[in-house]
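Lab notebook page, bench 4
Experiment: in silico fold of construct C2
Operator: M.H.
Input chain length: 179 residues
Purpose: comparison with the prior construct
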Amino acid sequence: MKELLRLSRQTLESYFQGKDPEVPQELVKNFSKRQACFVSLTKNGKLRGCIGSLEPKQVLYKDLIENIINAAFHDPRFPPLKKEELPAIKIEVSLLSVAKPLVFADSFELLRSIHAGVDGVIIQKGYASATYLPQVWEDMPNKEEFLGSLCIKAGLDQDAWRKPGMKVSVYRVKNIKEE
C-alpha cells in the first residue's frame, strides 16, 4: 500500500513539472484490479482537498492518479494547490469496499444500522447525494450530527435523513497516510 502513497506524491510532483507520472510495472501488476478510492490532502492538519470515486470504474492505479489530481487542483472547496505548498501536504489514500444499501423502516432503525467510526456513508435523495469517509467520524462521532451534516453537504435540509425516501448505503475503507 505504501507504493500508492509514493505514486500519489510522484503524480503531484510530475504535474508541477508538466509531465505524466511514471507508473512502475510492479505497481501496474499489483493494482490493476478495478477498485474505488478517495484521496485526501491535508496541510497543517486541515483538509486541503478530497476527491474520489464511490464505484470501481477503472483500475486502481488509474483511479488514484485521477483522484490525486482532482483533489489537488479541482476540489471546488479549495483553490488549486500551489507548488510551494507541496512540502507541507500530507496524502491519505482510502480504498473503498463495494457500497452496501441499507434497508430501514424509519430513522431509528437507520441509526442502529450505521456503525460510527467504521462505516463510510452515502446518502441519496432524488438527484442530491453525498458521502463521508469513515474518517469523518473522528470529528463528528454523533450519528445524528453526522447524518445532518451529510444532508447539508448534499444540499438537503439537515433533517432530510429522518424523512421517507432517503437511500443510504455504507462502505468500509482500508487507508494509508503519510506521517
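Observations: The chain has two domains: 2-96, 100-172. The first helix runs from residue 2 to 16.
Next step: discuss at group meeting.
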